[in-house]
């Protein structure tokens, strides 16, 4: 029997309009879709009526299915001759564990194809109109995971500061540790920060403040995942420019 193909597909930051054409076509024709909890229901609604949808959502407190079991499921279905769409929020290879699933597929001799998606960082920044790079403010961008083993022991020195933008995934629950860690590494307490919640969705919020106040901001505004933390001058410089433009328009 010829094995099926595992498609590691990026669903982007939320809106179906931000899917690639390749992703939309695969979703529409798939008979089996194994998806994360962050995939928007509107995207899942694009599946054919007889498609089987399997949710393998992960959260800090509870995993519907362990990663090893997800890999085993994908491989087992593909070995039966079934094509499988593994649908992930954002991009499969940016904190999406797509690399692990690709390795499992290759080890089993199963064909795998990766369909990139707009990453959470790119989608959130665009929706919030925060350029991650800017000739006047930042020429370096770094992505880090704010929820991982050994967070306090990781060396983030040099990832944020003048001329740099730091984007933190999964950092809501560890905002206090992140703030303390960065300031201990020498980052100024008044470094501008933006928290982008539910990026590219109707309920999106963009919250701003200084690094030292990040834990209070997250707690006071009751920020919940999905949310990204962006640290750097771009988060303040552009918002200030937008405010000035708005004030000028009102004066006219």
How would you spell out the order of helices and strands? EHEHEHEHEHEEHEEHEH
Global mean pLDDT: 90
| Low-pLDDT residue intervals, each spanning 5 or more residues | 240-252
- Residue share in helix: 25-40%
Strand content: 15-25%
Task: Compute the CA-based radius of gyration.
Answer: 20 Å
Strand neighbour order, sheet with most strands: 3-2-4-1-5
Number of helices: 8
Find the structural class using helix and strand composition.
alpha/beta
Shape: elongated
How many strands, which pairing sense, and closed or not: the largest β-sheet?
A: 5 strands, parallel
Number of E-type strands: 10
Distance between the termini: 72 Å
Structural summary, described in words:
The protein is α/β, with parallel strands linked by helices and 252 residues long. 31% of the residues lie in helices and 22% in strands. It is built from eight helices and ten strands. The protein has helices at 21-29, 41-44, 67-79, 98-107, 120-127, 175-184, 214-220, 234-251; strands at residues 5-10, 32-35, 52-55, 84-88, 111-115, 138-145, 163-169, 192-197, 205-210, 227-231. The strands form two sheets. It has a five-stranded parallel beta sheet, sandwiched between helices. Strands 6-7-10-8-9 form a five-stranded mixed beta sheet, with helices on both faces. The radius of gyration is 20 Å and the shape is elongated. The termini are far apart. The model is unreliable at 240-252 (pLDDT under 50).
């Amino acid at each position: 029997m010829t094995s099926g193909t595992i498609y590691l597909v990026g669903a982007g930051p939320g809106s179906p309009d931000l899917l690639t054409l390749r992703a939309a076509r695969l979703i529409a024709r798939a008979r089996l879709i194994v998806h994360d909890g962050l995939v928007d229901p509107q995207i899942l609604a694009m599946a054919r009526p007889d498609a089987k949808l399997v949710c393998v959502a992960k959260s800090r407190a509870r995993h519907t299915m362990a990663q090893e079991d997800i890999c085993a499921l994908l491989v087992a279905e593909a070995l039966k001759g079934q094509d499988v769409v593994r649908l992930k929020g954002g991009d499969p290879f940016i904190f999406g564990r797509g690399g692990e699933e690709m390795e499992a597929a290759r080890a089993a001799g199963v064909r795998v194809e990766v369909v990139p998606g707009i990453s959470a960082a790119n989608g959130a920044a665009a929706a919030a109109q925060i350029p991650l790079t800017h000739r006047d403010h930042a020429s370096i961008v770094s992505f880090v995971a704010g929820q991982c083993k050994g967070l306090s022991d990781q060396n983030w020195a040099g990832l944020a500061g003048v001329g740099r933008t730091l984007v933190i995934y999964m950092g809501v629950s560890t905002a206090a540790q992140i703030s303390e860690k960065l300031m201990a590494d020498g980052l100024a307490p008044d470094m501008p920060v933006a928290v982008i919640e539910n990026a590219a969705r109707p309920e999106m919020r963009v919250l701003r403040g200084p690094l030292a106040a990040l834990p209070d901001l997250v707690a006071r505004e009751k920020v919940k995942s999905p949310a990204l933390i962006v640290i750097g001058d771009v988060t303040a410089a552009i918002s200030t420019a937008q405010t000035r433009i708005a004030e000028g328009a009102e004066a006219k």
